[in-house]
């Protein structure tokens, strides 16, 4: 073990960690949007929407992320869209995340008693208003711990986008250890960085959860 | 019978001698869940400013009937009209079921109070009351908050405006739920066992608010197990049994003069359960 | 894809599938065994040991599987640990799974109703007997859904082994894709295949679950 190796590589690794963080954040945020849309579509009462949503969720939860990633990476140029690997990677992460998020929301919606929408209905609320003011705000609160957990999962999963050449933390570690022949030190450092980010996130999640529980 | 009318009943202003105006007319309403018939050919008229209590054993169909009045339950046959307007269907032949969007106009004039209060837990008492004023009546937020404050004061909860429902007792939650409804100035209020989920010592405060509403001339249909309330406050009482109205009339008649054996048995059971 | 390709690459793909199943089964077995031992060790009231095990679990669960694999396969030789890709892959899967399995077992252990253990104690059963006849069966019942879920997750993780050149299905497929320039079709085929595989593992798991918990659904046990 030579710690000087780690010290030398640290600026590069930290820079790459920032890339990992913002890619994951973007993936989770887009995943939120997809997840909410899919969840609402599945609860809309239209059979076609429900089936389509169900297939989407089943596919993106059933197929390994690495394959989803390559699928999008190879498919987009085929249908004439030439995108940089970064975009394909974020797309894949968002789609996968959306599938999980929609299930998280589905579970949370089931935890909101039916009487609450009934009260709104009896007062003359429109369906979109009930979603916007009654159901989604509560589903969101119930979901917070699961959503923070989802961000942690995505952060770890984002290491896979290294295979399409996106220079995030894992890819950068590979590049550095291939040039200095010190994989043990470099990967250890990368592992510690991942661990630090995730621990901070977990702590943050616990704090937010406590805040919401007080409301 | 142990049920006695208090002097308060006599104080209530008698209905004007003029021809009463019907608020709700129910004609030949039936409903079934598959082979299970829950309402059979119900006829009932509720006049303006009148309080009608629906009583009966559990499973008699009283809650279902109440929920049909604002179409939270769909009725299969017959018709329900509120102020002349047909509930839940287009007034054409053949009739067409209205969507929830089309029902909004009717529902904003019909308030409903639920057994489980159904307050929205992520909003304060004030926000619970103001929400519908903003979303349905289109009031601006400041005016809605002012009005919500007045309504909370009316049910004796002015000091709880900023409390979340989880910090309120059951009785207080139900009073907020009533404030939420009266803020909308409904023409008619439906109560679905409003005190059944409450601890006994909290029942009184909710019934008092309901008495005040009745005294102010609100038209009310109340599903209840509180026979004292029915005897003292209701203008008329309907006893439902197995989906039918088995007895209907002023409380004195229903409680003391009805020949219906099932009603006698129901009141007997009630009396035994509520005596020491 | 024409049939020539299947004839040409069929054997390699079959071999790859075999390696996938081998890695998955061996990884699950190692993970569960290790996880179970960790759970048992965590019952011992020695603070440093508890901290160590807790740290192990947090580290494994807080870092990407791929980093763990790289560390084991590429970093290993630096400390004299020279593993062949497949061995590293199996060991990696096992270590990765062990942290999750340990947590599943711990939850199951805590879910065993105290009264049942007290009842066994009051009957004078020895601790070994109580563990074997009372705690473990109750644990099994409550942990099966989570175990099945984790096994399905590990099915998906096997494809990551291709990155450290374990010749499993994903690796063989990518070799074929590169040689035939039919990348998209190959990947699509892989996606459908794994979709079915994971679905099959989940379904099989649900059947095992129904079987293991059968006594719970019996009316005479409903109030247990």
TrEMBL record, chain A:
GO terms for molecular function: transmembrane transporter activity. The chain crosses the membrane at residues 20-41, 53-76, 186-208. Belongs to the binding-protein-dependent transport system permease family. HisMQ subfamily. It comes from the Bacteria. This is Amino acid ABC transporter permease. Its main location: membrane. Residues 17-205 form the ABC transmembrane type-1 domain.
TrEMBL record, chain B:
The keyword Cell membrane applies. SUPFAM superfamilies: P-loop containing nucleoside triphosphate hydrolases. PANTHER family: AMINO ACID IMPORT ATP-BINDING PROTEIN, L-CYSTINE IMPORT ATP-BINDING PROTEIN TCYN. PROSITE patterns: ABC_TRANSPORTER_1, ABC_TRANSPORTER_2. InterPro entries: AAA+_ATPase, ABC_ATPase_HisP-typ, ABC_transporter-like_ATP-bd, ABC_transporter-like_CS, MetN_ABC_transporter-like, P-loop_NTPase. It comes from Azospirillum griseum. Keywords: ATP-binding, Cell membrane, Membrane, Nucleotide-binding, Transport. Belongs to the ABC transporter superfamily. It holds the Pfam family ABC_tran. It comes from the Bacteria. Residues 24-267 form the ABC transporter domain. It is a peripheral membrane protein. It is found in: Cell membrane. CDD domains: ABC_HisP_GlnQ. One of its GO terms (cellular component) is plasma membrane. This is Amino acid ABC transporter ATP-binding protein. GO terms for molecular function: ABC-type amino acid transporter activity; ATP binding; ATP hydrolysis activity.
TrEMBL record, chain C:
PROSITE patterns: ABC_TM1 (PS50928). Pfam families: BPD_transp_1. GO terms for cellular component: ATP-binding cassette (ABC) transporter complex. GO terms for molecular function: L-cystine transmembrane transporter activity. Signal peptide: none annotated. SUPFAM superfamilies: MetI-like (SSF161098). This is Amino acid ABC transporter permease. It comes from Azospirillum griseum.
């Amino acid at each position: 073990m030579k710690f000087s190796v780690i010290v030398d590589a640290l600026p590069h690794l930290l820079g790459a960690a920032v890339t990992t963080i913002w890619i994951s954040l973007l993936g989770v945020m887009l995943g939120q949007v997809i997840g909410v849309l899919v969840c609402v579509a599945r609860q809309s009462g239209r059979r076609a929407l429900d089936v389509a949503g169900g297939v989407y969720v089943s596919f993106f939860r059933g197929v390994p992320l690495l394959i989803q990633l390559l699928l999008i990476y190879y498919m987009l140029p085929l249908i004439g869209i030439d995108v940089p690997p970064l975009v394909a990677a974020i797309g894949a992460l968002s789609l996968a995340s959306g599938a999980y998020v929609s299930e998280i929301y589905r579970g949370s919606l089931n935890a909101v008693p039916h009487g609450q929408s009934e009260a709104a209905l009896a007062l003359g609320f429109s369906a979109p208003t009930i979603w916007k003011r009654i159901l989604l705000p509560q589903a969101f609160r119930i979901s917070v711990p699961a959503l923070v957990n989802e961000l942690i999962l995505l952060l770890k999963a984002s290491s896979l986008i290294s295979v399409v050449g996106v220079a995030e933390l894992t890819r950068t570690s590979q590049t550095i250890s291939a040039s200095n022949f010190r994989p043990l030190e470099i990967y250890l450092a990368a592992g510690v960085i991942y661990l630090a980010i995730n621990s901070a996130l977990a702590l943050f999640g616990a704090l937010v959860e406590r805040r919401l529980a007080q409301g | 019978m142990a049920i006695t009318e208090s002097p308060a009943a006599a104080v209530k202003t008698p209905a004007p001698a003029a021809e009463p105006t019907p608020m709700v007319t129910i004609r030949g309403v039936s409903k079934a869940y598959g082979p299970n018939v829950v309402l059979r050919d119900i006829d009932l008229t509720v006049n303006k400013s009148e309080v009608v209590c629906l009583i009966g054993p559990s499973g008699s169909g009283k809650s279902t009937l109440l929920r049909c009045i604002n179409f939270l339950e769909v009725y299969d046959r017959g018709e329900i009209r509120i102020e002349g307007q047909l509930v839940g269907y287009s007034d054409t032949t053949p009739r067409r079921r209205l969507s929830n969007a089309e029902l909004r106009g009717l529902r904003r004039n019909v308030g409903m109070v639920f057994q489980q209060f159904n307050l929205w837990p992520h909003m304060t008492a004030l926000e619970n009351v103001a929400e519908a004023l903003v979303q349905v009546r289109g009031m601006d937020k400041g005016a809605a908050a002012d009005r919500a404050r007045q309504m909370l004061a009316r049910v004796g909860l002015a000091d709880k405006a900023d409390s979340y429902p989880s910090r309120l007792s059951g009785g207080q939650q139900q009073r907020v739920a009533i404030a939420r409804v009266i803020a909308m100035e409904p023409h008619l209020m439906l109560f679905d066992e409003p005190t059944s989920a409450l601890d006994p010592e909290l029942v009184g405060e909710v019934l008092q608010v309901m008495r005040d509403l009745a005294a102010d001339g609100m038209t009310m249909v109340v599903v209840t197990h509180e026979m004292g309330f029915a005897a003292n406050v209701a203008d008329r009482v309907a006893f439902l049994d197995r989906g039918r109205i088995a007895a209907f009339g002023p409380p004195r008649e229903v409680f003391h003069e009805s020949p219906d054996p099932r009603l006698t048995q129901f009141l007997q059971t009630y009396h035994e359960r509520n005596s020491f | 894809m024409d049939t020539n390709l299947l004839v040409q690459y069929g054997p390699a793909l079959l071999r790859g599938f075999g390696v996938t199943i081998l890695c998955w089964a061996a990884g699950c077995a190692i993970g569960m065994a290790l996880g179970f031992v960790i759970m048992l060790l965590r019952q011992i009231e020695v603070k440093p040991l508890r901290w160590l095990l807790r740290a192990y679990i947090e580290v494994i669960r807080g870092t990407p599987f791929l980093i763990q694999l790289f560390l084991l396969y590429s970093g290993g030789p630096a400390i004299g640990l020279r593993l062949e890709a497949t061995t590293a892959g199996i060991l990696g899967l096992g270590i990765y799974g062990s942290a999750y399995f340990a947590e599943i077992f711990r939850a199951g252990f805590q879910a065993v109703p105290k009264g049942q253990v007290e009842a066994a104690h009051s009957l004078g059963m020895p601790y070994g007997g109580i563990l074997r006849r009372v705690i473990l069966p109750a644990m099994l019942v409550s942990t099966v859904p989570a175990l099945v879920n984790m096994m399905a997750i590990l099915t998906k993780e096997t494809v990551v082994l291709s990155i450290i050149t374990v010749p499993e299905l994903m690796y063989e497929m990518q070799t074929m894709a590169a040689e035939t320039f039919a990348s998209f079709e190959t990947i699509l085929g892989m996606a459908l295949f794994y979709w079915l595989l994971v679905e099959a593992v989940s379904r099989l798991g649900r059947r095992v679950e129904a079987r293991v918990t059968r006594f719970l659904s019996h009316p005479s046990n409903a109030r247990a």
